[in-house]
Amino acid sequence: MSRSASSRANRRGEPPPSPEPLARPAIDSHTHLDIVVGERPAHGAGDEGWPDEADVDAEIAAAVAVGVPRLVQVGVDVPSSRWSAALAERHPNVLAAVGVHPNEAGAGAADEAALAEIDRLAALPRVRAVGETGLDRFRTGPEGWSAQEASFRAHIRIAKRHGVALVIHDRDAHDEILRVLEDEGAPEHTVFHCFSGDVAFAKACVERGYVLSFAGTLTFGNAGYLRDAAALTPVEQLLVETDSPFLTPMPHRGRPNASRLVPLTVRALSEVLGVELEELCTALTANAERVFGSWEERT
Ligand SMILES: [Zn+2]
Questions:
Q1: In angstroms, what is the span from residue 174 Cα to ligand 1's centroid?
Q2: How far is the C-alpha of 131 from the C-alpha of 75, rounded, in Å?
Q3: Residue 17 burial by Cβ neighbours in a 10 Å radius (0-12, 13-18, 19+)
Q4: Cα 243 to middle of ligand 1, angstroms
Q5: Average pLDDT over residues 174-183
Q6: Cα 122 to the chain's mean position, in Å?
Q7: What pLDDT digit, counting tens, does each position of 58-103 carry?
Q8: Which of 12, 126, 170, 287 is 20 to 30 A away from residue 209, measured at CA?
């Protein structure tokens, strides 16, 4: 079987069919196309198993077709960060974020050589964010916490050095993350990817000028606290994302996610906020361009 024939038949199966297109363009502020399209495990796959360009381009085209022409492809380790930067360089619909994921960092992956490579990649013109970085106190046990925090601090410094956004992964670590951001000084554009806090934490983030990016979790039946958090966030501090292939919105929860499912989350957000859909899409695009810069520009 050829690579392209086999790569979509991965063990996760096909993402669900595309929803009705949006009338105005929106964005996917956080996707892992290398995992959506390829056979790569989520983390630590090294340089093996990259998907075919044609398969990646087809998935991006499917997102464009439903009104999602701006994607941020996010690295989780050095190899996927290099791949993300290269994809953004060749594809006009994609910008990149580069970083070592907190769970990788907690296991010792954010060593000096890795951080030097993230720093080098962060200088590239189509790399507009550093991350995902942050703290994960769910998957990483106490023995990895100091390495994780050291990596988070290093990523904050790299983002500030290059004047790019910071993309934060926060799992069960809300207060610790605020503490580190306060201590280091947050970059101008700081994004909480897949925002997972309640009203009180959303308020704390909003007050500090951070941007909250909501994923498919917003549509889950048991996520009333997230909808309450979104409802109090000013529209100009909101982004949407898939974190695909994870966190698939309803009614497809449990199947693989893809950027072309963003309209489901945008529609849910529009209802939660009581903001008209087209107006919300315009605002989300403007926010994404303020945080990550223009997709059209090469520098
Ligand atoms: Zn992610």
A1: 17
A2: 7
A3: exposed
A4: 5
A5: 98
A6: 16
A7: 999 999 999 999 999 999 999 999 999 999 999 999 999 999 999 9
A8: 126
Q: Are 183 and 122 in contact (CB under 8 A)?
A: no
Spatial separation of the C-alpha atoms in residues 259 and 275, rounded to whole Å: 22
For residue 32, report the distance from its CA to the centre of ligand 1, in Å: 7
131 CA distance to ligand 1 middle (Å) = 9
Ligand 1 mean position to 245 CA, how many Å?
9
Could you give the C-alpha distances from 43 to 19, 77, 133, 228, in angstroms and in order? 29, 7, 14, 32
Distance 1 CA to ligand 1 centre (A): 30
Residue 44, pLDDT above cutoff 80: no
Tell me, in angstroms, the distance from the centre of ligand 1 to residue 29's CA: 10
Smallest CA-to-CA distance from 261 within 9, 10, 88, 21 is with 21
Alpha helices, DSSP H only, in the chain?
A: 3-7, 33-37, 53-65, 78-90, 102-106, 112-122, 145-162, 174-184, 199-207, 224-231, 262-273, 277-292
Block residue for tokens 């087809």 = 58
Q: State the sign of the Cα–Cα–Cα–Cα dihedral 106, 112, 114, 119.
A: positive
> Is residue 196 left, alpha or beta, with left meaning phi > 0 and alpha meaning psi from -120 to 50?
alpha
Q: Is 244 helix (H, G, I), strand (E, B) or coil?
A: strand
Looking at residues 135-151, what average pLDDT do you find?
96
Provide the whole-model pTM.
0.93
